[in-house]
Each structure stands twice: as C-alpha cells, then as structure tokens.
Amino acid sequence: MLVNNGLVYLIALPLFGAALLLLSGRRADRWGHLLATALSGMSFILGAVQFYQMLGRSPENRAVSQKLFSWISVGSFNIDAGLLVDQLSICFVLLITGVGTLIHIYSIAYMDHDKDRRRFFAYLNFFIAAMLLLVMGDSYLNLYVGWEGVGLASYLLIGFWNHKPAYATASKKAFIANRVGDMGLSFAIMIAFATMGTVSFSGVKEAAEGTSQGALTAIGIMLLLAATGKSAQFPLQAWLGDAMAGPTPVSALIHAATMVTAGVYLITRSNFIFDAAPTAQLLVVIVGAITLLFGAIIGTAKDDIKKALAASTMSQIGYMVLATGLGPVGYAFAIMHLLTHGFFKAGMFLGAGSVMHGTGDEVNMRKFGGIRHFMPITFATFGLGYLAILGVPPFAGFYSKDKIIETAFYAGGIKGILIGSVALFGAALTAFYMSRVMILTFAGTPRYDINHPPHESSFLMLLPMGILAIGSVASGFLLARGEALVHWLEPLFEAHEGHGKEILPPVVISLMALAVVIIGAAIAWFKYGRGTVADTAPTDVSIFTRIARRDLLQDDFNESVFMRPGQALTRLLVKTDDVVVDGTVRGVAAAALASGSSLRSTQTGFVRSYAALIVIGAVVLIAAIWAVTL
Amino acid sequence: MNYLTLIMAIPLVGAALIATLPQAKSLLAKQFALGTTLIAAVATILMTVKFERGNTDLQFVESYDWIKAFGIKYAVGVDGIALVLILMTALLTPIVVLAGWNESDNGRWSTKTFYILILVLQTMSFGVFAATDVFLFYVFFEAMLVPVYFLIGGYGSGERTAAAVKFLLYSLFGGLLMLASIIALYVLSGEQGGHTFNIAALSKLEMSSTTQNFLFLGFFIAFAIKAPLFPFHTWLPDAAKSATPGTSVLLLGVLDKVGTFGMIRYCLALFPEATKTFTPLIITLSVISIVYGAFLAIGAKDIKRLIAYTSISHFGFITLGIFAMTTQGHSGATLYMFNHGFSTAALFLVAGWMISRRGSSTIADFGGLQRVTPVMAWSFFIAGMSSLALPGLSSFVSEFLVLVGTFTRYPVAAVIATFGIVLAALYILIPVQRSLHGPTTPGNENLADLNLREKIAIAPVIAVIVFLGFYPAPALNIINPAAAHVLSQIGFTDPAPTHGGK
C-alpha cells in the first residue's frame, strides 16, 4: 500500500487549534474563531488533495496509509498508531471537513453574541480532529479512540450551555447512552483479538475467512450495538432528541451530518464480518427498519423544529443502517444516502438555526408561520433540502433513497417485501412530517407579533446554507451518474452478483415511492396547510399522538427499566456496605473485644445473624466463582 | 552507584534537617520538604534512565547482613514492575507537597512533624517496593502504618481518630497473618538447607499444597486489605474522607499499590500452585470489586468517599489483570498501578482544593463551578475523564490491556468487568454535573480559581496522563519484560487465538 506521511496533518491541524484555543484563554477571543475556521479549511484542502491524487491512481492502488508509531505493544497485542485513507474513508474525510468548515463559517455569525464563542470553536475543532481519527484509523482500536473522542466532543457541545440543568442532563444522557454502545465496541475488539489475534482492519479481514461463524456473529452483533449507540438507532436512540440542547450548528454538524453516521461507517468498514455472519446482518436490517419507522413516527408529533429534524435524522440513518444490512449491494447505497443526507439535513438544520436566529431563539413551530415572506433565502435553501429529503426527482434524496427502497424490495422473499414496504411507508411518513415542518414554519399566516417580524440572517450564515442547498440539489445526481460512487467503492467490498431478484421493475418502485410521497405531503397539506394552525399544541388528542409526543415512551421505558431499578440497587448496596460488610467487621471486632472479657457475648443473636449472613454470602460467592470461570 | 539506598536516604536526610529547624519556621520546613522530594525525584529519574530495559534480572542490587543470627539481610533490587512504582512514588510526593502547601496548618501537631512524617513515609514506600528480603519487606510494610496513622489522625478532618484507628487495626490484622506466613517460610527454609528470607531462595521451597494454600492466604489477605479488595475495603472510604487530600493521594496512590505489588512479587512468586488454586476466587472478588465499588461510588454523597470507591473499582481491575495470567493482563495491571497513581492524585488534589475553598466535601454543596472557577473545573473534569478511562488518556491503555488480557482466558469475567466502563461514566459524570454544571449555587459565587502554585502542581499530573495516553511505550518498555518474566517463572503462556488467525 502507498505510504503518505502527510495524512496525520489532517488530524493534527484541528487538534492543534483546539488545544491552542483552550489553553490561550480569553487572549484568543478576538481571533480564535478565525483560526479554528482556517484550520478546518486547511484540513479540507488536504483532504481534497488526497482525493485528487487518488483519482489519478488505478482502483487497487488508491488506498494510502501512514504509520506514526507503535502505540500499544504487549505480547502479541500490537497496535500501531496508524492511519488509512481509502475510497471509503475519503468520502467521510471530505464530508467531515467540507461540511465542518461550512459550519465553522456559519458559527462565526451564529455564535457572535456568545461570550464563550472561542470555547465553542475549540470544541468544534476538537470534534473535527476526533471524527477524522475515527474514519482514518487503521484498526478497531484506533477507531475506538476517535469513537470516544467524538462522544466527548458531542458531550461538551450538547452541554455547551450547561448552566441550564436540563442541558447538562442532556449531555450526560448522551455520553452514557454512547458508553453503552462503546461497550459493544470493546467486546468486539476483545473477541476479535481472542479469536483472530489481531484487531487491525486488514488483519481482521484476512483472518475472517478462517474464523468460526459463531465468533463472527458475536463480533457483528457487538459492532451493531456500538453503532446503535453512536448513530442513535433502536434501542439506544433516546439521547438524540435531548441532544438538540446543543447550539444549532452542532446539531447540524454532529447530530445530523457526521458523528451520528459513524455507526454506518463502522458497519460498512466491517463488511467482511457482516457478509460472513448472516444472523448479525439480519439484525442490522431489523434495527434499521425499526428505527426508520420509530424516528419517522416521532417526527410527526414534534412541535419543536429541531426535535422534528432530530427524529428525521434518526429515521434517515435507519435507512442507511437498513441498507448496510443488505449485503454488498447495499453498502454503496448506504454511503450515498449518508453523503446526500449530510448535505440536505445539515442545510435544513442551518436553516432552522437561521429561523431561530431571526425569531429570537424560538423553536416551537406553532409560533412560526409565513416566515417565507421575511426570510426568503432561508426558505429557499430549506425548501431545496425539503425536496431532497422527500426524494423528489431530480433532487439528491431521490437517487439515494430510491436505491435503498429498491434494494430492500430485491432482498428476496417475504423479507424483501416486508422491509421494502417498511422503507416505502417510511418515505410516506417522511413526506408527511417534513411537509408539516415546511408548512408550519414557512407557510400560512404569522403566529407571532407581526410588529417584530423575523429578520433574514447575515451573509456568513446564508453562504453555507446556499452551498449546502446546491449539494441538496446536485449531489445525488453526481454520485449516481454512471454509478460513480458504486464503482468508486467497489474494490472494498466482496464482489456481488448484481442486484437480487427484481420482483418489480425499478421504475415501478420509483413511481410507488413518488406516489407515497405525494400522499404523505397531501395529508400534511390537508391537515395543516388549509385554515389556521393553533399556536399551542391541542391537548384533546388520541393516545397514539400522546405516545408519539412522548417519543414512543423511550424515556419512560429506560427510566423504569434501567434508571430507577439502578438507583434502587445503588441505595441497597450503599446500605449493604454499611450494615452488612462494614457491620460484620465491626461485629467481629466487637465480639473479639467482648470475648476477651466474657465468652458469653459470642452467643448473642447479634453475632449469629452475622454468621448467617456470612454463610449466605459464601454461597453466593461460590456461585459467582463458578460463573466467571466458565 | 547504589541508587536504591540513595533514594531511600535522601528523604531521611531531609527529615533530619527539618527536625533541626525551629518550631516557628513552618515555611522553611515546607521548602525543605519540597526541595528534598524534588532531589529524590531527580535521583529516581536518573535511576530509571540507567535501568536496562531488556534485562529481566533484578537491578541496582545491594545486599548486606542485617541480623546475621536469623539470616536477615538488608537486600534491595528492582525489576521493571518495582521500578515504575518507585518512580511513581518519587514523582507524586513533590506534587503532593506542593499541592497541599497549607494542609498541615490545622493539624494537631506542628508543620515540621507533618513533613517529617511525609518524608519518612516516602523512604518506607521506596523500601517496600525495593526489598528483596521478605523480612525487610515486612518491616517496611508494617512500619509504613505509623506515619500514615499519624498523618490521618493528626492532620485529617472530621472523625479522623476513628478513621486512623480503623485503618491501623485492619492493616495490623493483615500484617499479623502475613507475619505468620513469613515465619512459616523461615522455618521451612531451615528444614530445607538453611534459614533465609531471600525471596529467590524461598520460591524454590518444597511445600505440600495444604501448606502452600495456608501460607498464600496469609500473604493474600494482607495484600487484599491493603489494595483493597471486596470485602476487605471498608476502611478505605473512612480513611480517605478523614485524611488530608495529600495524604489520601499517598494512601491510595502509593500505599495501596503495595497490596497489588505484593500479590505479584510474593503471592505469585512464592506460591505458584496455591495461586492457581485460588485464582477463580480472586478473579471473582476482583469482578465484584469493580462493579460493587462503582455502584458505591455512584451512590456516594461525599466527594472524597466517592473517589475512594472509584479506587476500589480500579483495584478490582488491577487484581483482575494480575490473576488473568496473560502478558496483556500483567503489563496492563502494572501500568494501571502507575496510571491510577496519577489519575487519583489529580482527582484528590483538585477535590481537595474545591473542598478547602467551599468548606464542605458534600457534592451537593457545589454547583456551577465551571463558570466561577474554570481552571479548577477543567482540572477536575480531565481527572474525571482519566478515571473513566477515556481513550487518549493513560488509564485507557491500562484498562483496555487488562480487559483484553482477561478476555482471552476468562471471557465471562472480562465481560462483566467491561460493564464497569458504563458505571464509570455514571460515577464521574454525576459529580461533574452536580459540582461543575448547572447554575452557580449560593455560597459558590466568589470561590477563587486555582492559584499559580496549584496550577504548577496539577500541570505535570495532567501532562503525564495525556502523554502516556498517546505514547505509553516508555512505561510499557520497562514493564513488559518484567511482566513476561513473572509469568514465565510460574509457567503461564498466553492463550493462542482460537479460530486460526494470522
């Protein structure tokens, strides 16, 4: 493989920016944001140069690597700090640094009034560095460093305004949900090392052939667990909605375009495991299908524009995960949707931020209405993103989402029809909730004080929105033209025998998709587009609406199944430690002292009850020994 | 040069000099103490540089007759494991002195006495890691209790006397069991060719398995109390809560490592067969410690007790790594001891500054510190991230090595232990949220941020934590040969990859 010793600078530049901005303190307030933006931009340029050089090489020679130093080396556990940029990573590198730089630019204006803007930019730069490490690491352990690094960045940015208790709680919730997922990644790495003796991507790929299916399935399921945490997929999805506590540029960059798609990257990167572990692959499909509906249903019930978009993100990533579960044919489509989604969803989030900026930080769509008159450019860029996510030809989502729906239908048998239908139904729901967002925000009559109308945002905010809108229009066509992306990624995946069984011609599926989109949008129009919209959410709604508003009871479930029993267990153990463990010690000490003066005291019930507890404890201990040494 | 004797002598000389100072010159006593510990640190760094990494023999060996009649020698020497622990002690002590500059002010006795105790404790800590004569080890092991007892009881806060007594009784109990085992070893050695306390000679003794088991337990219980391992841990939270922050750093960071170090040096080396017999029990206790300590930390309301409980969880990881009997587990465990010293130091020192400013160690009394005292808040946060083993910080490397090294032999134990990483996120982020985030609570509006002295004290700790996270090789290069040597001595090899592989 080609060696390029410049790869590290992609990561080092923003990392240096983050460190400098944090360590300089207030001194850097005047120029910190400019430096951070410039460093992110330089990373993008370096990435673009890499991409350009890759284009000039033959497909099998495109990947480049760099070994920095031997990171951890004990016995046969040898991990290099090594970087790898191949056809898959470069897609992410360009997305992260490209969209990342645009969002830096946007944030200069968006965070202008915040006295901690420098700290914000330090975190953004740190995020870029960690995310680049995630996609450029050449082993699962290097990936893990970036993986938890972006988790930390996400935690810091969700809690950027952590003086508000709810925001601090939201950031903690995100970190913990992610840690549950990270545990999966730990398990996957341990199993890989124990069975294959290596954890590098190339090593695992090579060893996978000689490894039992049981082990591969276990690794696959654990990787999926990791992906569900980072990508807010069922059952670890509950943190994403609360994550909207972070400043809106963060929601656009981390919680829409890049970090939350890391799970899709992980599964795609591990294609050699999932392709050889059908059970794990089926679980991937199931998780994707559940989440795409789950997110879409929540999206229909949210009045907070950011939470509606967050639910949509969850749902769209569900599509990507679903696609990765469809085997070799699905990976490229998952990545294509990931890239187009990166444009249109980031664009819409920035649009939402623009609306918030213009309305004094209002997020309740029932307080909007008719904003298109006051913010025409925001309306136009948001609108293009809207058309893209709906999958209206020829906008970006049409190319990427239709391919996923098509591939789902072609997965074969009942499974194909089932997941194809789920994907199709999801498209209808998407059309409904996104049209609802559009109508409530931009159409209709104003539901705010008309004497203080919203104002259009400044050029620095509109520029990134405009560029992303161009992406929402053109990226799908460019990636799909002549199957450009599919061919680009082809060398990474197992060769596959074309598509599955075409139960319906592609054009019919496209028409069906378009039909359900029109139906979904039409329902939204009939419900919200005619007549007036109440500026407070109606309360006399069905039980289904109420459940959807409560995020399908995800928090109620987690709180009653994990949090409260966990708290009870904690209280019990605290009590046990004092009364039983320390009590036994105190009891023995007291008994020893007492027996010195009088043997009678050893016959008290006090000592006997401790003895009983010790016996019980011994039995439990023996059972535990048996369990851990299995 | 006789480095080991030299570094043990330096603090004693310093202590003697301080003893000659007039009672009123407390600032001078502090400066002397800082100077002495810095000289000891420099000498230890020089020794580390001179250490031959690839060589698995004991190095810097010295041996002189002490009590000839009983074959007792002053014999010292280090391998890579002992060396990193001595280095950790040498680096942490000046930081503790500088960080806790005013800790001795509210003591029962004078400032002079405080620093004499600290310096004597440092000499004993060096000795306990360096001793190669079991009797010498025992002397240091027991003698260490004395300065710590007075440091807790004389300079601590709250119910310091009770905590000090509890600490002493627990330790003496363990020490007695160990003494019994040592005497038995001595008697056995007399029956088999000559009385000795030399570890290398004792490890060659022939013993019935019953004898081995009993003698093993004598040592192990003493070490498990020291480390501490569930269910021998209840002295630690009380001691940590009552001791000054600096004393707590030395107690949890250095002294408790004698327990885990002793398991490697004595339990494994002297009783390989008994070790195998008791391994399932110890692995189980380790896993229980990890989870149990974490839950108690989550439930703790006092910040010092919380840190003590996190250490119980961390010591569970260290013991797990040792008894997994793989090179990753062993190297990971020793690196964990070193890293834990620094990450616990960071936590205790910053918590100590928070407590002394606020006048309370109850977590609920803090709130919103990030806005009031950003540097202190950041220091606490980074210390916390190190405690939860965030990748990129040093403890991640050691914790992951322990987990992966355990998994290859005891997958179930490793899986349960891995749940500890989620619990760790809880026990760190809960106090972080309560004390640093949210609105600034009444009483905290005017707290002062770290001063220059405090910044100078915490900076090297954080630097070590970050540096070894990215580049652990300098530490691993010292540890790896020694760890591999210990395992090969008792006949363990790493499990091979199970399903083919490379």
What does this structure look like?
The complex is a heterodimer of chains A (630) and B (502). In chain A, 71% of the residues lie in helices and 3% in strands. Chain A is built from 24 helices and 3 strands. The radius of gyration of chain A is 27 Å and the shape is globular. The two termini of chain A are 42 Å apart. In chain B, strands 1-2 form a two-stranded antiparallel sheet. Chain B is globular and about 70 Å long. Chain B is 73% helix and 3% strand. In chain B, α3 runs parallel beside α14 and α7 packs across α10. Chains A and B meet through β2, α5, α6, α7 and α23 of A and α12, α14, α17, α18 and α20 of B.
Descriptors:
heterodimer; A: mainly alpha; 3-stranded mixed beta sheet; globular; B: two-stranded antiparallel ribbon; 20 helices; 2 strands
Proportion of helical residues of chain A = over 70%
Secondary structure class of chain B reads mainly alpha
Q: Rg of chain A, please?
A: 27 Å
Beta-strand content bin of chain A: under 5%
Tell me roughly what share of residues is in helical segments of chain B. over 70%
Oligomer: heterodimer
Question: Span from first to last CA of chain B?
Answer: 46 Å
Unreliable parts of chain B: none
Reading side by side through the largest sheet of chain A, how are the strands ordered?
A: 1-2-3
